Amino acid sequence: MAVLENKISVRNLCKTYEMKGNSHEVLRNMSFDVRENEFLVLLGPGQCGKTVLLNILAELEQPDGGEIVFAGGRPRMGEIGFVFQKYALFPWKTVMGNVEMSLKLRGVDKETRRAAAQEYIDMVGLSGFEKALPKQLSGGMKQRVGIARAYASEASIMLMDEPFGALDAQTRYQMEDEILRICEKKKRTVVFVTNNVEEAIYLGDRILLLSSRPSSVKEEYVVDLPRPRKHTDPAFLALRNRIVSNTDLNI
Amino acid sequence: MKHNKDRILSMLLPLISLGLFFVLWFWLARAEDSMIPTPYETLLRLLEICRKPISKATLPIHIWVSLRRVLIAFFCAIVMGVSFGVALGWNRTFRALVNPIFEILRPIPPIAWIPLIILWCGIGELPKVIIVLIGSVVPIVLNTYSGMKEIDPLLLDAGKVLGAGRRQLLWEITLPATVPAILAGIRTALSSGWMCVVAAEMIAARQGVGFLIVRGQESGDTALIVACMLVIGVVSMLLSTVLIKLEGVLCPWQFSKTK
User: Fold this and answer.
1) Which of A134, A148, A139 has the alpha carbon at shortest distance from A167?
2) What domains can you pick out in chain B, each with its CATH number?
3) Over the stretch B118-132, which tens digit does the pLDDT of each residue have?
4) Cβ proximity of A32 and A66 under 8 Å
5) What is the CA radius of gyration of chain A?
6) Which chain A residue shows the shortest CA-CA distance from B164?
7) Does B163 touch chain A (CB under 8 A)?
8) Interchain contact B172–A (C-beta under 8 A)
9) ipTM, interface predicted TM-score of the complex
């Protein structure tokens, strides 16, 4: 068995929306593999169907055609972690209540799930904020809760939909380092969607560049720069230029 | 500085407007062929009925009688309205089946039911309670239903990816997310219920604030009428204040002002 076996195989995925008589083809023959425990970045221009793709992977939406094969069989709901761009925290739940949600839904008893959730709250650096409500937190802290909530499900696959897209630049850099530290600590297979080239190179083991709509995989880049990466490193910049010149403009 | 000025203004302006209200009232009441009592006469009458019973009851008792009718109906309305609204919002078959009937019955003013209800239930406590119930259940149903319809789909997605089954989506995600809308409905329901009880009592009752108004009309006692009108307004205001406080306690994520 190879070390990097395919965790997810996506084959010929198609998705078209019908809106007011117009049809919008979003995905056309999208195919790629996600390897076990890698940090895969899907990089694409705005509106190119990245979110739709993740929603299909998470079974929130159904594809019109194609198939997705998971190593070890189709995970059930709750066995894939999802981090939303707009956090999607439950506003009536405290930080603890949000993070322990997946365990609660699974029927884990209170003491066990509190202890498990605490570990992830500590992991994202929110110790002391267990009883805070989401509205009392800053954007960066909200997304830390989002990440802790996704990880607490103990899912082996993490889907992240532009998780730092709503944050200001400074917080964004912080959170990028944060997510790398977390991935180092808790090995998971991560599929990370972004429209930001620097973020993609800074984070990814591998980058799949998507074309604009109807989107498919345009190019694959293996990022073999050592971590921590530097935005000013010549190799970083060279890769950035290669990717940018190959990116479709979003009109 | 500016902040301070705003604070003073926001405390002063209500006093000014209340003062103007009483001055205007006094001025109208003093006109030669005026039908309305002056504020002073009203106050005297108010104090008098607090001590001297009308129809075997002092004013506090009358208020309590009306309030009890409202509260009984109100709690029934919460139970019935919330369950009905949730069923409308959650079950498509139920909605298709029941919504047309509800849409026809909904616009009928609760007061229009009074004659029929009296025919069916006589003139005891029950008919008043039923009329208040009709008046207060509708806003609760409407708010619950629309709260469920307008739930952020992202929260449902979050629930699904965290592994919530359909029942858990309802109990753990949809219902808590709908609580603020339900509470808003409850607040409307309480004030509409209070209006209905006065109307119901004006038609057939031996006690209650509505009854007092009718008594005032029959005996040409305008001071009594106006005193009762004031009481109705103040009670309604107090009820609404209590509920607003309660909302802050029940869903701090929505109403309380922490940051």
Assistant:
1) A139
2) 53-250 (1.10.3720.10)
3) 899 888 899 999 999
4) no
5) 18
6) A105
7) yes
8) yes
9) 0.90
Assess contact for B140 and B85: CB atoms under 8 A: yes
Amino acid at site B74: F
Asked if residue A213 lies in contact with residue A237, where contact means CB atoms within 8 angstroms, the answer is no
Mutate to test the interface with A, among B162, B171, B249, B253 (most CBs of A within 10 A): B162
Q: Are strands A80-83 and A6-19 parallel, antiparallel or unpaired?
A: unpaired
Chain A hits for B158, Cβ within 8 Å: 82, 84, 88-90
Question: Which residue in A13, A17, A16 sits closest to A53, CA to CA?
Answer: A13
CA–CA distance from B245 to each of A44, A69, B175, B250 (Å)?
Answer: 49, 53, 21, 9
Residue-wise pLDDT for A95-147, tens only, equals: 999 999 999 999 999 999 999 999 999 999 999 999 999 999 999 999 999 99
- CB-side exposure of B146: number of CA atoms within 13 Å? 9
The dihedral sign for the CA sequence A81, A87, A92, A98: positive
pLDDT, tens digit, for every residue of B52-76? Answer: 898 888 999 999 999 999 999 999 9
Residue type, A115: A
Q: Is A242 near chain B, with CB under 8 Å?
A: no
User: What whole-number distance in Å separates Cα of residue A225 and Cα of residue A227?
Assistant: 7
Supply angle C-alpha B209, B214, B220, rounded to 5: 125
- In one letter, which amino acid is B159? G
Q: How far apart are CA A100 and CA A111, in angstroms?
A: 11
Question: Residue A47: helix, strand or coil by DSSP?
Answer: coil
Q: In terms of Cα–Cα distance, which of A48, A44, A33, A55 is closest to A200?
A: A44
- Categorise residue A206: left if φ over 0, alpha if ψ from -120 to 50, beta otherwise: beta
A111 is written with which tokens? Answer: 């003491």
CA gap B113, B93 in Å, rounded: 29
- Asked whether the beta carbons of residue B157 and residue A101 sit closer than 8 angstroms, the reply is no
